[in-house]
Amino acid sequence: MTSFINATCISIIIDKLNFRRLSYSDLKCIAFTISTMIIYISFLVSSLIIFSFFIANFKPQIPTVDLDSVNITNLNTKAVNLTATFDLSFIFETPDNHKRNVSFSDLEVRVLWSGKDKITLAKKILLPFSQVENNVTKIRAELTVIEVFTNSSDVSTGIGAERDSGSLHIGVSLTGSFMLRDGFSEALRHDFDRIVVKFPPGSNNGTYVLVPRPIFPNLWSNVM
């Protein structure tokens, strides 16, 4: 039964092929058409690749931001209110944007305690600034704890316990906006979580440093 079906199928295929025999001119026409289609498709693919490369090179590149270091000084959980000073430094790097300057505005920095629902410990509005292309700038910001946490609060108790253990876990957020010279504007938001600030035994001063630290030959600094 199977061989009969196969033979029948083969016979049908042969009949279809013999229904019309192609002349030499027909074959030449088909070959020319196929060749033309291949050339056209190749040209189309090449054009798409070149166009994508063109767009990628001329599209404005978004600047990058890294949290470089955190220094906590005078952390006091025994006073009437929790007190501490946070010295933060950020690295702003602008890529090659074809002579487009970048302007940053509405920048707000927050320091949060990771121990309990990411409570905001300190916040500050930074001054607007601008960068040229291919530029690296270190922005420093000094924040102090907002006066809402008493020495008996869960926040003060938890922070004191973490400090005494040698590691305080915090988060840092940076929000705002940036605009390129041609008017292209976009929101800016960076969240740096799981920052571990190391405290020596018995000390109220702790430090966090980005490791490994990037090396920038031309680094500009600005304190806000």
Could you provide a short overview of the structure?
With 224 residues, the protein is of the alpha+beta class. It has helices at residues 2-18, 24-58, 154-165; strands at residues 64-76, 83-94, 102-113, 119-125, 129-131, 135-144, 167-180, 185-198, 206-209, 219-223. It has three helices and ten strands; from the N terminus they run ααββββββαββββ.
Number of structural domains: 2
Number of strands: 10
**SSE order in H/E notation?**
HHEEEEEEHEEEE
Q: Judging from the principal axes of the Cα atoms, what is the shape?
A: elongated
* Span between termini: 89 Å
- Tell me roughly what share of residues is in helical segments: 25-40%
> At the first level of CATH, what is the class of the largest domain?
Mainly Beta
Strand content: 35-45%
Number of helices: 3
Structural class: alpha+beta
> Average pLDDT across residues?
80
As a whole number of angstroms, the C-alpha radius of gyration is 33 Å
If you consult CATH, what is the topology of the largest domain? Immunoglobulin-like
Please give the largest β-sheet.
5 strands, mixed
The strand order across the widest sheet is 9-1-2-6-10
Low-confidence segments, ≥5 residues, pLDDT <50?
1-6
CATH architecture of the largest domain: Sandwich
Organism: Medicago truncatula (Barrel medic)
Keywords: Membrane, Transmembrane, Transmembrane helix
Protein name: Transmembrane protein, putative
Subcellular location: Membrane
